[in-house]
Recover the amino acids of this structure.
């Protein structure tokens, strides 16, 4: 988890317009995970997660690659 936090801090220090996050909280404890999620809300993020509960907490729009997963038509991005 420490390497993930350091990598995220380095990325944020560059003041990016968009963050591409691949399972950024997978090695974090639940409390730290929630803190990271909350701190990233002010950024535009493309966030890869396998955790449906996390997806609900952090997303405003979603793109689902697995057609067998439940889809929320209000937030599903169509391409």
């Amino acid at each position: 988890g420490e390497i993930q936090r350091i990598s995220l801090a380095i990325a944020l220090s560059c003041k990016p317009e968009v963050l591409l996050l691949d399972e950024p909280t997978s090695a974090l404890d639940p409390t730290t995970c929630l803190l990271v999620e909350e701190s990233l809300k002010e950024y535009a993020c493309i966030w890869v997660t396998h955790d449906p509960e996390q997806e609900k907490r952090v997303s405003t729009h979603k793109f689902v690659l697995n057609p067998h997963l439940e889809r929320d038509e209000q937030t599903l991005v169509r391409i």
User: Anything to note?
Assistant: Residues 2-58 form one domain. The chain has a mean pLDDT of 84.
